[in-house]
Specification:
The chain has eight helices and four strands; from the N terminus they run H-H-H-E-H-E-E-H-H-H-E-H. Strands 1-4-3-2 form a four-stranded mixed β-sheet. Helices cover 53% and strands 8% of the residues. The chain has two domains: 55 residues, no CATH class; 98 residues, Cytochrome b5-like heme/steroid binding domain (Flavocytochrome B2, Chain A, domain 1, Roll). By secondary structure, the chain is of the alpha+beta class.
């Protein structure tokens, strides 16, 4: 009773209202607050269920690297991360690596994104972000720069899977030309041997 008497006295002293009027106004204020709060939804409140479900489900494992074999520089450009359905590839010293697991570095918007889909050997050796250095040309590099490239190559071998190798765009044509030339040489040598045999037979006669 002493507490109630003190509360009533405090309400009358500080608000000038009777206890009934004070509690009625307080109840109305709480009701209005709840009504107004229900009209506004915080942005983070909508996907709460989705977040809770995502937290329960295990993260999907990254796709296993797929061996692509021989590719040309032109074909390698298609794996620069612009197509999320394709793996993220880059080459060092002619060897192609799947760097999809390092997408935050080599994917679009990453600090090394310009290396993706390219042979970045020279750029890595020089630690250069110049587009003219995005090539496999190692001419004129110093021994120290070649050592830097070797360190990069070792890191890639440890962290990423090699999935192919670069070939010259005209390698098939060169192989075909080489094969035809070899066939011609074989035919000429064979014809020469026949001519030699014929001359031997004539001389014997």
């Amino acid at each position: 009773m002493a507490f109630y008497a003190t509360l009533v006295e405090a309400i009358d002293t500080y608000t000038g209202l009777s206890p009934a009027a004070f509690f009625t106004i307080l109840a109305l204020m709480v009701g209005v607050y709840r009504l107004v709060s229900a009209m506004f939804v915080y942005p983070d409140a909508v996907p709460v269920a989705e977040k809770s479900v995502a937290a329960v489900l295990p993260p999907s494992p990254p796709a296993e690297p797929v061996q692509i074999g021989d590719v040309t520089l032109e074909e390698l450009k298609a794996y620069d991360g612009s197509d999320p359905k394709k793996p993220l590839l880059m080459a060092i010293k002619g060897q192609v690596y799947d760097v999809s697991r390092g997408r935050m570095f080599y994917g679009p918007g990453g600090p090394y994104a310009l290396f993706a889909g390219r042979d970045a050997s020279r750029a890595l050796a020089l630690m250069s972000f110049d587009h003219s250095d995005l090539t496999g040309n190692l001419e004129s590099l110093s021994s120290d720069e070649l050592d830097v490239l070797l360190d990069w190559e070792e890191k890639f071998k440890e962290k990423y899977v090699k999935v192919g190798q670069l070939i010259s765009e005209n390698s098939e044509d060169k192989d075909a030309i080489g094969s035809s030339e070899q066939m011609e040489r074989n035919q000429e040598s064979h014809q020469g041997a026949l001519d030699g045999n014929e001359r031997s037979e004539i001389s014997l006669k």
